[in-house]
Design brief:
Strand content: under 5%
Number of strands: 0
Structural class: mainly alpha
Distance between the termini: 47 Å
Radius of gyration: 24 Å
Largest sheet: none
Shape: rod-shaped
Order of helices and strands: H
Length: 65
């Protein structure tokens, strides 16, 4: 019975540690776009309507997500 308890505690501890280490890096901020933004075509009546904005973080990702 003590071995079962010990194994349970070890597995729970290992699970908690692996969960904590496997968390995704999350960064947030604000941005905006309007008709004066370079490359903004959402307000045009024809053609492709799109806008592409690159966001630079103070602490950059190793690769783009």
């Amino acid at each position: 019975m003590k071995k079962l308890h010990l194994v349970t505690v070890i597995l729970l501890t290992a699970g908690l540690i692996s969960t904590a280490l496997g968390q995704a890096k999350v960064q947030s901020g604000t941005w905006g776009a309007n008709s004066s933004t370079t490359g903004y075509t959402l307000s045009e009546n024809q053609g492709e309507r799109s806008v592409v904005i690159s966001v630079n973080f103070l602490d950059p990702f190793e690769s783009k997500p």
